[in-house]
Prior knowledge:
CATH architecture of the largest domain: Alpha-Beta Complex
Strand content: 15-25%
Structural class: alpha+beta
Shape: globular
Number of helices: 20
CATH class of the largest domain: Alpha Beta
Number of strands: 21
Largest sheet: 7 strands, mixed
Number of domains: 4
Mean pLDDT: 91
Radius of gyration: 29 Å
CATH topology of the largest domain: 2-enoyl-CoA Hydratase, Chain A, domain 1
Distance between the termini: 39 Å
Amino acid sequence: xxxxxxxxxxxxxxxxxxxxxxxxxxDPQAVAAQLLAGDRDGARAALADLDADSPLIPWRDxxxxxxxxxxxxxxxxxxxxxxxxxxxxxxxxxxxxxxxxPALRALGQLDPEDPELIAILDTLAAExxxxxxxxxxxxxxxxxxxxxxxxxxxxxxxxRLLARYxxxxxxLRGLTGATPEAGCHLLDRLDREYHRAPDWPAVVAAAQAHxxxxxxxxxxxxxxxxxxxxxxxxxxxxxxxxxxxxAAAAAEAAEVPAPLAVDAWLAGALGHLxxxxxxxxxxxxxxxxxxxxxxxxxPGLSLSQDEAGDVYVSALDLSGPAWASGAHVGxxxxxxxxxxGRFVLAETPAETRLAAAVGSLPEAPDTPxxxxxxxxxxxxxxxxxxxxxxxxxxxxxxxxxxDNAWDVWLDPDAGLAYVRVLGxxxxxEADFDALLEFSGARGVVLDLxxxxxxxxxxxxxxxxxxxxxxxxxxxxxxxxxxxxPETDPATGEALAPWNHAVPGHALEGxxxxxxxxxxxxxxAEVLAGALQERxxxxxxGAPTWGKGMAQALRISEDPLYAVQFTNLVWTLPSGxxxxxGLGGGITPSLEARLSPAAGYQVHLDARRRAALQAHxxxxxxxxxxxxxxxxxxxxxxxxxxxxxxxALRARLALSPTD
Length: 658
């Protein structure tokens, strides 16, 4: 019997329509349930015969697109494996570990049981035992990542320690401030504020082991002859401060710099606690603080070098001082001048020219930098930039328009928006609101792929935008952080706790789909989990990293040092923990695993769409020259984003917002 087209009927009339000889259209809610359960084949079959004006045609088109991308990915994976194996073998033959390591990591992501990969790892394990410090550190780090065993992890830690003090890279001036007084002050803080009570005897044993590794290293012995005779192994103190003081005293008695012993002892002690707890000595505090705040000081431009050796402006920061200075992307930099003098680039060898130029960019705030430029088609010109704060942009839309403004719409007619959060910094909340809060979006794809976390308050505030009430996250730890006043100082009214949703946001009730991957970690996992549990968000992608711990950042003025240490464990509203060994990461409801090459292509495409389109004076900006490998097939789109849009349409069908 030929199919008789039907106008969209009410569900209650479906049986009548069938008896009349026509086929009722698919039920959107039934298809939505199939999609959210991962049954793409069943959903595609249900959508096979649609009327020309069916509202489900975009669903079918997206399913077809997803199927095409699946085929593209299969072809890419096959070609990718061959290229990676060839790269690894060539690197092994030439001794180029910088080429071998990323190739092997990528092979491990493709298939950790690949027999070719296992054979190469066996070869590297045999080499690692006798390799010099810097190479051994890289080898053991690779082996610990791809073949994690207690032995590999211990050897990795040993190799890292020895590489830190390798003669070609170590400068004792970087340990200024590494005193027993500072170390004891730090240990006392950890005794009070670390998220759980440390096992101090085990911590001291790990610290002593680190000193032993350093003491046994021939390179360190050659540099500090007294190291071999220092009585580190004879010290039996289990009280951490006393043990640290004894180590420093033993070093001085052997004519070994005490800061060296303090630094090595603390590296072992803090590394035993967890991978993220570390001390920062005074020389590093400024750059460390700038990194965590997402703000750096400089002119706000990037430099690159072409094949001829010329250095040119390759990017401008929209928030940086250079943006309105008149500099353009593509300008050749001939000279740079500030209070330190004039630097003519042509007078520097080509192989060190770019590094020297980049090194001249940062300086103190409010210091001028004069650039002698040469613009193609224009000629020489001079611009002066006053160095100032450059804020990291952590919130992206889908693509920039000609005026550099973000376009967030996947489908403006359907009200489907996209926003990507790269990390959480103090400005992230305001940037998110500026882009999306009053957009009128009915559904949002929130892309947290590659987001390693950051400011938990910013993450919780973004969750609050979608949730009207209730707890969004919980913490456990011996010392809870200061979360601000409990009442409004002006009115005396009670304020909502920092981790509770506050009603009144425009996006409350909007459908949400969250994109995640193996690099989604920490605060980003808290946000994804909170939206999954409190807003019914569907998660699409690959299992997250599983770093459900928060680090406090503390700077001590007297004695001067800084420390990052784990002070809290995050818990989702359901009570589930996220940290490895406690609960692990989050597994998406819809899997979309990308191979390393596919992920890189998707990343490059996102950067192209994020590239600025025009300079401050309105002149067009040249397109970025991001190029993927030419010897690999190219994806025609982002497979995970296609599935995320499908899931978003399904969520709206099951829980319409209007």
